[in-house]
Amino acid sequence: MTLKAELLARIAASGPMTLADYMAECLLHPRYGYYSTRDPLGAAGDFTTAPEISQMFGEMLGLALAQSWLDQGAPSPFTLAELGPGRGTLMADVLRATARVPGFHAALNVVLVEASPTLRAAQAQRVPHAKWADTIAELPDAPLFLLANEFFDALPIRQFHRAAGDTWREVVVGIEASDLRPGLAPPAPHAPLDQRLADTRPGDIVETCPAAAPIVTRIGEILAAHGGAALLIDYGAGPSLGDTFQALENHRFADPFANPGHADLTAHVDFIALARAAQPLCATSAITPQGRFLEHLGITPRAQSLAPRLSGPALESHIAAHRRLTHPDEMGSLFKVLGLTPHFAPPFPGLIPDHS
Ligand code: SAH
Known about the structure:
Layout: H1 3-14, E1 17-18, H2 19-28, H3 34-37, H4 50-53, H5 55-71, E2 78-83, H6 89-97, H7 104-107, E3 108-113, H8 117-126, E4 131-133, E5 144-149, E6 158-162, E7 168-176, E8 179-184, E9 205-208, H9 212-226, E10 228-237, E11 246-249, E12 252-254, E13 264-266, E14 269-270, H10 271-278, E15 283-284, E16 288-289, H11 290-296, H12 299-306, H13 312-326, E17 335-341
Helix pairs in contact: 5-6, 9-10
The structure holds S-adenosyl-L-homocysteine.
Residues 27, 35, 41, 49, 51-52, 84-86, 90, 113-116, 119, 149-151, 154 line the site of S-adenosyl-L-homocysteine.
C-alpha cells in the first residue's frame, strides 16, 4: 500500500477531500506521512531552515528570550517551549547561548511539541533533558516562553476561489484518470470568509488555516494568566491572497499531488490572522521582517566576533549565512516575526512595537 493508493480508495468511497485533509494526511499520516517517516532538513533533505543555516539564529533568539524573562522578573519555574522543533537545533542553540544567564537554566522546563516520532528521536539527541507533548493543549499552567520557527506553514490549509456574488468554490482533491487532482467544489457561502468579501473580487484565491487560531488562542491564554512571551517566525504576510500552496522535494518545487507523503507541503502564513487571534488576550508586536529583527538584536556584531576564528570556505559560508538570514533578497523580508507578550509586560526585544 502507498499513501496515494490509500487516498484514491478513500476518495472513491466517500468523495473529494479538502486540501486541509489532504495536507494533514500527506504530512502526518502515522505510516506514510512526510514528517512521520523522515528527517527532511538540511542539504541532504528537502529544505533548509534558519537554525540549520547558522548557530547565530538560535543565539539571538535565546538571548532575546532570556532578556524578556528578566524583564518580567525572572519567573521560576517556567516553560521553555518550541512548536515543531525539527532536528532540535534551534533549542540546542538557545540553551547554549543562555547557559550563563544567572538562574535561567535552573528555572526552565523544556517542552517540545512534536508530532513526528522520527524527529522526536533527532531532538532527543540534541536536547536530552526535554519533555515532549503531542499538542499545545498539554503545556502546563506556568509562565511560558515559546518559539515556533517554520511551524505554522506546515499546518493544513483550506483554499477558496471567490465565485460570483458572495460565494466561494473550495479547492478539493479528487480523482482524474487514476491520479489525484485538484478541482473546485460547487459555489457556496463560507462564513469565516465573510470579512474577505470586502477586499477580494471574483477570481481571487484566499487560504485559511483552521488549526492556527486555536493554537494562538491557547498561547495567548497562558501568557495572559501566567506571563511569558511567544515568537512566531515564518514566511508569509497577510491578509491571505493568492495560491501559496507548494510542494518542495530535494530543494525544488514539485507537483503537490503527484507523490503524496514524499514532498514537504506548505503555505504562506497569514500573520494578520495570527495577530487577530491573539489580540483579545495579549499584546502583539508589529509583523516585523526577520532581517530587521535579527539586526536589532545584534546579529552583525555577533557575526563579526565569530569571523576572526574562521578562514577559507568556513569564513565564506559564515558570511553567506549572515546574508541569507538577514538580507531582503534572501530570508530577511519574506520571513516575518510576530511577538506576543502579556499586556502587563514590556514589549519583546528587537521587535517593532505595534501602534495599531
Ligand atoms: N522548526 C524547525 C523545523 C521546521 S519543519 C526548523 O526551523 O528547522 C516543521 C516541524 O513541525 C517539524 O518538526 C514537524 O514534524 C512539525 N510539525 C508539523 N506539523 C505538526 C503538528 N501538527 N503538530 C506538531 N508538530 C508538527
